[in-house]
Amino acid sequence: MGGPRRRVACTMRWDLPAVRSRRDRESAVCEIRSRLALAEGEAAVLVLYTRRPPGRHGLPLVSLVAAVQAADVPLLDALCVHAGRWWSYLCTDPRCCPPAGTPLPAPTEPGGASGVAAAAVLAGRTALPSRAALVATLRPVEGAGRAAMDEALAHRQAELATRVAAGATVEEIRAESVQLFRTALRRAADPSTPLDPATAARLLLGVRDVRVRDEVVTWAERSAASGDALRSLLTDLVRRAGPDTVAAPATMLAWVAYQQGDGAFAWIALERALAADPGYRLALLLDTLLRNGVHPPALRARAEAPPPTA
């Protein structure tokens, strides 16, 4: 949290099975402290979701909370959430934090999740039940769809090679690629007109050119609608891409998701890119940004800052 109104400045997530030993706890605490500093946060709220119910010996995972406190991380509160109820690690007053826990508000109650859920649905996003479900949204097409894409990619690649041999310049093909993306982006808002394999193949080959890739990916910053349309288009392309064409669109998709604050989806797309091409430079850069918790607004502010004077 940061600022006079204690607004959320950054959120982080760990899988608790990975926090087992003292070394694991120290690593998690180090991450919390570094992210807090990067986000210029002044305090934090720690929420631990667990299947282990509170017992007669107290709340589970007390050692992790103690490790955070010992590292001088200013905690506004630390909560344990289990089976629809929550407990505070820091408050022992039974008038506000009863030993039996406090029921979580229902989505339709004041303080429930209805406002957040409604905003997410309005933006075209829903919470998926698991990480596996998130990965499945980028599952490559199979069967007849895969065969059609492989044939279209081979045909389009041969076509481009023939045009270059006949005198077409890189600049001409680059301009054509950018224009095709503009047209595809307008169509992306209408799900009734999906891309045909030939157009999808041409777009996938187009973003192999880093100048096309870098220009197209900046369109997400124009508006929320542009970002959502580009994300939809790139998701389609990533699913249609083969191992030798997926690195660029998957990295672009990760970048758009990162700019939108959707770190979970950015990681999924980035994993696809680096699995196909472990040395893809833009993917490696984005991997560094995500691992270090660099907030997109901070990155944009740094990019837009005037160069230092001599």
How many helices? The count is 13
Largest beta sheet: what is the strand line-up? 1-2-3-4
Largest sheet: 4 strands, mixed
Helical residues, percent: 40-55%
The average pLDDT value, as a whole number, equals 85
Number of E strands: 4
Strand content is 5-15%
- Compute the CA-based radius of gyration: 24 Å
Short structural summary:
The chain is elongated. It contains 13 helices and 4 strands.
Question: What features would you describe in this structure?
Answer:
It is a single chain. The chain is an alpha+beta fold and 310 residues long. It is 53% helix and 6% strand. It is built from 13 helices and four strands. The protein has a four-stranded mixed β-sheet, with helices on one face. β2 and β3 form a beta hairpin. The longest helix is centred in the middle third of the chain and has 23 residues. It is elongated, with a radius of gyration of 24 Å. The mean pLDDT is 85.
Which SSEs are present, and which pair or pack?
Layout: H1 22-38, E1 44-49, H2 62-70, E2 75-82, E3 85-88, E4 102-103, H3 114-122, H4 131-136, H5 143-165, H6 170-188, H7 197-206, H8 210-217, H9 224-240, H10 247-259, H11 263-276, H12 281-291, H13 296-304
Parallel strand pairs: 1-2
Antiparallel strand pairs: 2-3, 3-4
Helix pairs in contact: 1-2, 5-7, 6-7, 6-8, 6-9, 8-10, 9-10, 10-11, 10-12, 11-12
